[in-house]
Amino acid sequence: MSAQADKRTTRFDAEAASYDASKPYLLPWADEAAKTLVSYLPKTSQQPLIGMELGCGTGLVSQRVLKSTNPPVAFILGVDASEGMITAFNAKAAALAEDNGLVSPGSPLTLESPPRGMYAVYCMIEDDSSLRQSVAATPFADVLPTQDFDFVVSHITWHHIRDLNAMAKHIWRLLKPGGVFLIVDYEKTSDSIEFHPPSGRSEVEHLWGFSKDDLRGHLEGAGFVHVETRDVLTFERTGKDDGVTRKFTFIGAKGVKE
Ligand SMILES: C[S@@+](CC[C@H](N)C(=O)[O-])C[C@H]1O[C@@H](n2cnc3c(N)ncnc32)[C@H](O)[C@@H]1O
Fold first, then answer.
1. Number of domains composing the chain
2. 108 three-class SS
3. How far is the CA of 44 from the centre of ligand 1 (A)?
4. Helix or strand holding residue 121 (H, E)
5. Which atom of ligand 1 is nearest to the CA of 124?
6. Where does the pLDDT of residue 107 fall: very low under 50, low under 70, confident under 90, or very high at 90 and above?
7. By residue range, what is the domain housing residue 251?
């Protein structure tokens, strides 16, 4: 792992345990990302869908997408490069599964295949074998999906990924034909760099965020078709370091693997 990736992981490790409680503004963001994803999923599927969340954090988006009944979603594999986030995600996954009567207390997954609910693995996807290797290192290697996903979602993670064109191609290969990839991240504007206060910029790869054309380019360059972009949500935020209130917009870009 590179020094840059270490820094990124350490920051999220430190935040993970109190992430949801200390950042209530994330909840409407996750609501809108989940709604946007579900709006793009095929409604004709007979089988409940199996998805992946890239940079899943504590599972705020995954837990919402799992509630979808049209189409039904069976399982989401969370993938994150922070061990702290994985621990938080899987504690939430176990609690949700117990609530739904899917597993016995203490176990995050049933051993049925495909599994139901959500489960996260530590992985920095860098090549086509890294997700398989990460899954193989879990006690659930026999039941967790590693390819042929119906959808992949990335919510405010894309700006952390170093090589976006390579990552878009990895995601394309992980999807089944007809599979949907949705990126939601902040829009590039004259002051979008302020989305991260100066004190928290060092570990961020794409500080200015993205234009809709940037995201379209990543998706089309990887071979995605039926690419659509849209505004997802606009909100105001006051800078931690300078106290100035600014407006930010999250944009979404969806592509389909033909
Ligand atoms: C801003 S958080 C967003 C988390 C979650 N998607 C949410 O909406 O709450 C970004 C997440 O991406 C993860 N991340 C950053 N770079 C990554 C990479 N190369 N591979 C996997 N995860 C990564 C971080 O560890 C962090 O959990």
1. 1
2. coil
3. 31
4. strand 117-122
5. 20
6. low
7. 3-256
